[in-house]
Amino acid sequence: MAGDGLTVLISGAGIAGASLAALLGRSGHRVTVVERDQGVRSSGNPVDVRGAAYEVAERLGVMPRLKDAATKVRELIFVDDAGRRVASMRTRQSEDREVEVPRADLSSILIDAGRSDAEFLFDDMITQLNPDDGGVDVIFDRVTPRRFDLVVGADGIHSAVRRLTFGPEADFAQHLGMYVATAKLGLPLERDDTVIMHNEPDTAVALHPGTGSSGVAFMFRTTVQIDHRNTEATQQLLKNTYRSVGWRTPELLSAYLAADDVYFDSVTRIRMGSWSRGRVTLLGDAASCVSLFGDGSSSAIEGAATLAATLTGSPRDIPTALARYESAHRAVTRPRQRGVWIASHLLIPRSRSGIVLRDRALRIVGRR
């Protein structure tokens, strides 16, 4: 460790990793980010930046770009088979200090914010970690081995750093009996400020206007468990699940199945007794995923800010810095993980009576 600055390797150039790279780099640390993809994927749902994450984005100076890239969505409406509106809810908690941004745009903007202060290695990955009391020797797939003071796994729900350091994913991942599939379709929509959703028991299909290119999302419950990487299995599961769902579902499913860039994964909760082991720690979904329903993007940015602050405050006492980070950020993620049950039943009711009760409750709230 030279001076007070740390050498830090971040695995993953997504929202968590890019945020941390920008924050640490600006604080004088020497940061390297390794990302196995060649660039930022275009698929995935638009995500929110709100609360403390909004303040971090302001600090990084990226809010003007985020606002330019933001969607105009303000409302989610629920429709019946004929497309008639039956209920609605606001999607924003604040009109002034909140933006919804396509995930790829958010990641790209955060990467740009860190480029001048961090090194980015795309199309590469960590294959081996050899930690000791003074740091971590890292072997990569492509570049020559290096040594770092700290390694941060910000590589998502299927984190390789977590697997290499803590053990197999199955030890920490809890499949919640739901899947989500998304794709950009570019279908024309009448309004750019409204998401449209149709429900039948255990299923939801939604159209999001995006920012000039609409997208579709399929969210559903099932007892079937498949490998999210098996394209044939995922497509067959979608066909079986949605074969008799009404509204525009046949058209939207056909478009999804024909799309080149799609996202499909289980709705999963990651729970760990500790996020750190020696000179290796986890951030974002790798540590505390509450995918789809847990405000994960804002949590990732908040967690990055907390980790950057504790490391900068105690660069010569990494164990203390990591303990402070984990204690503070668990207080943020814990209630969001507990809220998954409520959010999932709001968006994917289990029965027709549940759909009716949800719609009725939203109409009553809307009249207040």
How does this structure look, described?
With 368 residues, the protein is of the alpha/beta class. It has 2 domains: 7-71 and 101-171 and 270-340, FAD/NAD(P)-binding domain (3-Layer(bba) Sandwich); 173-268 and 343-367, 2-Layer Sandwich (D-Amino Acid Oxidase, Chain A, domain 2), CATH 3.30.9. It contains 12 helices and 18 strands. It has helices spanning 15-26, 52-60, 63-69, 103-114, 160-166, 231-242, 249-258, 285-288, 296-313, 318-338, 340-347, 352-367; strands spanning 7-11, 30-35, 47-50, 75-79, 85-90, 98-101, 118-122, 126-132, 135-140, 146-148, 150-153, 173-184, 194-200, 203-208, 215-221, 262-270, 276-277, 280-282. Strands 5-4-13-14-15-12-16 form a 7-stranded mixed β-sheet. A 6-stranded mixed β-sheet has the order 7-2-1-11-18-17, with helices on both faces. Helix 6 (231-242) runs antiparallel to helix 7 and helix 9 (296-313) runs antiparallel to helix 10.
In summary, what is this structure?
The chain is of the alpha/beta class. It has twelve helices and 18 strands.
